[in-house]
Amino acid sequence: MKVMVIIKATKNSEAGVMPSPKLLAEMGKFNEDLVRSGIMLAGEGLHPSSKAARVKFSGAKPIVTDGPFAETKELIAGFWIWKCKYMEEAVEWVRRCPDPMPGEEADIEIRPVFESEEFGEAFTPELRAQE
User: Fold this and answer.
1) What's the pLDDT tens digit per position in 40-79?
2) Which residues pair with 111 in a beta bridge?
């Protein structure tokens, strides 16, 4: 199964506070372990929402809103895409993760990524070929 591991934003990450050299080294080692284990497919940190935009679809015309966005708990500071055998394996890896936001409460969310076969008949042969 493929999962997206989402590091939630905090007050400091939204303020643009950069990680310490120590944390960067710890995360680098953790990422190396993930790659060596064949788990990590991708991963990136994200700029604060002050550099972001949202596009809302409601009605005939999309509405663009520039950041920053108020609700920190709804924002993402970074992510990984992992290939795991099962959800419990992803949970175990996250438990080994260095604290991504030292000095603040940090949340990491793990979400399964839809695989094409999960869409059933709606994913027609034409759509499969396009994919």
Assistant:
1) 999 999 999 999 999 999 989 999 999 999 877 789 999 9
2) 4
Three-state DSSP class for residue 49: helix
Handedness of CA 24, 77, 108, 82 (dihedral sign): negative
Helix ranges restricted to H, the chain:
11-14, 21-36, 87-96, 125-130
Cα radius of gyration (the chain): 17
pTM for the whole thing? 0.88
Dihedral over Cα of 82, 87, 90, 94: its sign: positive
Distance of alpha carbon 78 from alpha carbon 76, whole angstroms: 6
Tokens encoding 34: 């993930």
CA dihedral 78, 81, 85, 91 (to 10 degrees): 0
* Tokens representing residue 7 in the block: 């590091």
> Distances in Å between the alpha carbon of 9 and those of 25, 91, 100, 120?
20, 19, 10, 34
CB-based contact 11:107 (threshold 8 Å) = no
